[in-house]
Design brief:
With 100 residues, the chain is mainly alpha-helical. Helix content is 67%, strand content 0%. It has one domain. The longest helix is centred in the middle third of the chain and has 32 residues.
């Protein structure tokens, strides 16, 4: 066992807060897009001109549409997977943040 641990040590990876998805529907690509949106916002605040404002606004609006579509697809897939199992279906309903 000692030889195994020396040859294959346990490697711990630090998770970066910016790149880790906060919700299960957010992929790594969407998390990276959120980071890009933050950079565009910081550039707009540092140098507030019309060009930076338009870049930020258009990217923000496209990202918002994409995030909403990703979340909708996530819940549709989750409900489709639990169609014939009432217990899983109720669990999916309870995890939905938009239920009333």
């Amino acid at each position: 066992m000692v030889e195994f641990n020396t040859c294959f040590p346990l490697v711990r990876h630090k998770m970066n807060k910016k790149n880790t998805p906060r919700k299960p529907s957010i992929t790594k690509g969407l998390a990276n897009s959120c980071v890009k949106k933050e950079r565009l916002y910081k550039a707009y605040i540092a140098n507030p001109n019309d060009c930076n404002r338009e870049k930020y606004k258009t990217y923000r609006n496209k990202l918002t549409k994409t995030l909403r579509a990703a979340e909708k697809d996530y819940y549709i897939k989750k409900f489709d997977a639990a169609t014939h199992d009432m217990k899983k279906n109720m669990a999916a309903i309870k995890t939905n943040p938009y239920r009333k």
